[in-house]
Amino acid sequence: MRKERLKAVMAMALIIPALCMPAKVTADINNSFSDIHSNNWFYSPVLRLNSLKAISGFPDNTFRPYNYTTKAEFVKILLDAFKIPVENGHDYSNIKDHWADNYVSTAIANGIIPESTYNGSFMPDKLITRIEMASMILSMLNVQYVNDKSPFDDISNEVSTTAFHEYLIMGSIKDGKRYFKPYSNVTRAEASAAIVRAIDYMENSNGYKKNSHKELVQQEKLIAKQKEEIRTQELYNTLVKPSAVIAQVTENAKLFSSYYAPYNVVGTVNKGTKVEIIYGMYTQWFYVSYGNVKGWVSGKVLSIPPDPPTNTNKMTKEQLEGFVNYKGFASNAPYFVWVDIDRQLTHVFSGSKGNWKLNKTIQCATGKNESPTIRGIFTVSRRGDWFYNPRYRSGAKYWVEFSGDYLFHSISLDSYGNIKDPTLGKRASSGCIRLSIEDSKWIYTYIPAGTTVWVY
C-alpha cells in the first residue's frame, strides 16, 4: 500500500515542468558557495540540488562539501529533491519534536525508510552510512532488488548489488578491487551526487543506464590496469630483492653524529636491536639506522652476518628493461646504471625515462657485509685513470665516482699495476664496485657525468 502511494507521488513528480529539474548545471546557474569550484567533481550535482532548493549552504556562504551528513539531513534533501510532499500527523516517538520529524515521518510512512529498519529507533542525528543511503534511494525509486553475485569486495547483499546493477552507486576502485564501503559515512558532496544520479534515473532509467554504462567500462579498464600493475609488482618483488645488511646489536650502545669525534650522542640502541648498516669506515665504525634514528656506532657492538651467496638466477633482457621502465627511473644523461648487489651484476641501459634499452650487463664485485656498498640513487661525477690507497695497499684503474668515496673501478691492483685480487661475482670489496679492467675502462670512457646510478 505504501509503495503504491509512493508511486503515485513519484508520478506527480515526473510531470513537474522540466525547469524544476534541470538536466545539467549550466554557467547561468549562480554558484554562491565560496568553497565550490568548477573543477570539483561534485560541482554539478551540488549546484543542481541547490537550484532545486533541496540543499543549501551556511551563513558564511560556504557549502562545506566534506562535512558528513546525518540521517535526518539526508532524508530532508532526498524528499525535497524529489518534490515529495511532507506530511504531518504521523507519530513516531523516537523523532517527535525533532526539527526533521515530519520529513522522517513522511519517509517512514511512504516506505522510503522501511519500518522494519526504523524499528522504533531511527536516531536522526546519527551520521548516515553508504548502505543506509543506498537503501533509501532504492526505496524512493521503487527498484526491485537483484539477487546476484556481488560486484564488491567488501560487501555482499541485495542493497549494494542492486545499487550497482542499476548504476546508482558504482563504488570506488583500489588495488584492482571495487569497494562499496558500506559503513563509511557520507559527505554532503557524496550525498548530492548520489541523489542527482537518482533523479536522472527516475527521469529516464534506460537512458541513464546507457550513459552510466560508459562509467562502468572505464571502471573495468581501471580494475584490469591495476590488477596488471599488481601482478607486475609481485613479479618484480620476486626477481629484485633488497640487499640491505642487517646487523644485531650485542650490547647497549650509543649512537654518535660522527665516527671521528665520538662525543656528540644522537641516540641509543639496545642490545638485541637489529640495525641496517648504511656504510662503514675501516670496518671499525658503522653508520646505521633503525626506525627514524641514524648514527655512528662502534663495530665492537655489532654482530654482522656473513656475506650471502650470489643469486645466480639472472633476469631476462625483457625483464630488466621492463623493470627499469616500470620504476620510472630518470637520468640527466642518455645512460642509466643499475647495480644489482644480489646478483653481483651491473646493468647499463641507454635511452631515456620510460624507454630504457639494455646496453650491456657487467659482472662486478660489491662491498662485503663488513664494508657494504652504499645503496640508493646517485649520480656519476668525477673520474680518473688510476688511484692507489696505501692504507689498503691496493689500487685500481679507471675509477668513476658516483657517491663520495664510492667508485666504479677495476679489480684490485698493486702499486705496480699488477693484479692483486681478480675476484668478481661475489661481495669482495671495501665498498666500491669492482669491474674487470676492460669493463671499468668502458664505464670510464662512455658513462658521462650526470648519469643516474641505482645501487640496490
From TrEMBL:
GO molecular function ontology, one term from the record: transferase activity
Positions of the catalytic residues: H409 (proton donor/acceptor), C432 (nucleophile)
Record bears the keyword Cell wall biogenesis/degradation: yes
Pathway this chain belongs to: Cell wall biogenesis; peptidoglycan biosynthesis
Domain SLH: 29-86, 87-151
Name this protein carries in UniProt: ErfK/YbiS/YcfS/YnhG family protein
GO terms under cellular component: extracellular region
Domain (SH3b): residue spans on this chain: 241-306
PANTHER family cross-referenced by the UniProt entry: L,D-TRANSPEPTIDASE (PTHR30582), L,D-TRANSPEPTIDASE YCIB-RELATED (PTHR30582:SF2)
UniProt record, GO biological process: cell wall organization; peptidoglycan-protein cross-linking; regulation of cell shape
